[in-house]
Amino acid sequence: MFYPTDTNAHGLKHDPFKAIVAPRPIGWIGTKGRDGSINLAPYSFFNIVSDSPKIVMFSSSDRKDSLRNAQESGVFTASLASRHLAESVNASSVAVPYGTDEFEIAGLSPLMGQLVDAPYVSEAYTALECRVTEIIQPNTLEGGKADSHMVFGQVVGIHISEEVIRNGRIDMGLLHPIARMGYRDYSDGGTDVFEMTRPTAT
């Protein structure tokens, strides 16, 4: 099968694009509004983009609450979702009016960052505290702008639960990070963990 994306003539029941670019890590973005309200939302358009310095990115379609709060406050957190919190991740994705506390909806306990004024999920095994470095709308071939806003944040603090550390490293078999696949499918990244060493040229 081949189809040009300007026609979207794939003939399938559902658009396969997001199923092709998978699995995608889930950034559970925590923010705080100017009115003091706290917000939590999962983003599968999320990833690390730099190691030196440490920078992550989440992409928001349209102007959602996470984007608004991060833009106004200049900070956000990214808790990383594990299998034991999958149902809570899904619960926090509900569309509710601005100012509604998704932590409460999902039955989670928020903790405020030590270096940023934004909440993270206390039940998560790992969380990142981030300061916004830039927010951009990608350009399109037609000369316009995509409907997504990419929020880049430099990581200034990292939380790791001692529960998932073994032999000086995070044990993925204990962390069980979940990822978004296509459609309504998710995967557990801790169920089939294997190691490979990068080869060296001879």
- Major sheet: order of its strands? 3-2-6-9-10-5-4
| CATH fold naming | Pnp Oxidase, Chain A
Radius of gyration: 18 Å
**Shape summary:** globular
Number of β-strand runs: 14
- Strand percentage lies at 35-45%
What would you say about this model in short?
By secondary structure, the protein is mostly beta strands. 13% of the residues lie in helices and 37% in strands.
Q: What would you say this structure looks like, in words?
A:
This protein is mainly beta and 202 residues long. The protein has one domain (25-188): Pnp Oxidase, Chain A (Roll). It contains five helices and 14 strands. The strands form four sheets. The chain has a seven-stranded antiparallel sheet, covered by helices on one side. A three-stranded antiparallel sheet has the order 1-13-14, with no helix packed on it. The protein is globular. The termini are far apart.
What's the arrangement of secondary structure elements?
Blueprint: H1 17-20, E1 24-25, E2 27-32, E3 38-43, E4 46-51, E5 54-61, H2 65-73, E6 75-80, H3 86-91, H4 102-105, E7 110-112, E8 119-121, E9 126-136, E10 148-160, E11 165-166, E12 169-170, H5 172-175, E13 178-180, E14 186-188
Antiparallel strand pairs: 1-13, 2-3, 2-6, 4-5, 5-10, 6-9, 7-8, 9-10, 11-12, 13-14
